């Protein structure tokens, strides 16, 4: 069944605070040998509220003594584009470059394995965080896909509980595993080694 934080975002974020601040979550208990990856799914229409609630959650956790690193995938890609000297050129030529070529350029420059995840790794090392929160998934589609981020993060965040805020559905199908459906309409047939944080009990 799909699992999204549609009903009551205030209660959802209260629950997220209780879960993420718990010792069981921070110590990665009850996960077996699986990676501490978690999905917090929500309806895409709620994105504007998430823009305020996620930073607020980060501040609340920090005030509670939990070291949290919040990264927005869009902000990271902009940083990559500017650092590599592509930002201004792409903006200037966006209207004249064929759409497929523009997309290919973005995909190459912001490649999850070679560019994005190494930047995330640097931020984690510099922060010594206990928890990583990732936002901005919808803003970087289609040049960065969630499954690419999750797959490449495995070598970086295996000791750091990671929560990905996802605008869409997170579904489990018996015998096939879990699937993300971006915006609730774009299915992805890849298997995800991530837990639904709504099912985690502190």
Secondary structure elements and pairings:
Elements: H1 9-20, H2 23-26, E1 37-42, H3 47-63, E2 68-72, H4 73-83, H5 87-93, H6 99-109, H7 112-127, E3 131-135, H8 146-153, E4 162-173, E5 177-182, E6 186-187, E7 195-196
Parallel strand pairs: 1-4, 1-7, 2-3, 3-4
Antiparallel strand pairs: 4-5, 5-6
Provide a concise account of the structure shown:
The chain has 202 residues and is α/β, with parallel strands linked by helices. The protein is built from eight helices and seven strands. Helix 7 (112-127) crosses helix 8.
What does this structure look like?
It contains eight helices and seven strands; from the N terminus they run ααβαβααααβαββββ. It has 202 residues and is of the alpha/beta class. Strands 1, 2, 3, 4, 5, 6 and 7 form a seven-stranded mixed β-sheet that branches. β5 (177-182) and β6 (186-187) form a beta hairpin. The chain is globular and about 50 Å long. It starts with 8 loop residues before the first helix and ends in a 6-residue tail after the last strand.
Descriptors:
7 strands, 202 residues, 43% helix, seven-stranded mixed β-sheet
């Amino acid at each position: 069944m799909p699992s999204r934080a549609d009903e009551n975002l205030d209660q959802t974020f209260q629950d997220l605070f209780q879960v993420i601040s718990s010792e069981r979550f921070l110590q990665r208990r009850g996960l077996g040998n699986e990676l501490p990856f978690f999905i917090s799914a929500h309806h895409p229409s709620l994105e504007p509220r998430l823009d305020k609630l996620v930073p607020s959650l980060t501040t609340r956790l920090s005030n509670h003594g939990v070291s949290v690193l919040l990264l927005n995938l869009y902000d990271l890609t902009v940083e990559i584009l500017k650092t590599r000297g592509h930002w201004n050129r792409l903006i200037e030529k966006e209207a004249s470059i064929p759409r497929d070529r523009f997309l290919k350029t973005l995909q190459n420059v912001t490649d999850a394995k070679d560019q994005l995840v190494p930047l995330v790794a640097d931020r984690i090392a510099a922060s010594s965080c206990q928890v990583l929160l990732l936002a901005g998934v919808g803003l970087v589609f289609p040049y960065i896909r969630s499954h690419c981020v999750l797959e490449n993060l495995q070598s970086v965040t295996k000791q750091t509980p990671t929560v990905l805020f996802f605008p869409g559905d997170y579904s489990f199908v018996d015998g096939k595993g879990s699937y993300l459906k971006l915006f609730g309409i774009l299915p992805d047939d890849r298997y995800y080694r991530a837990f639904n944080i709504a099912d985690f009990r502190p």
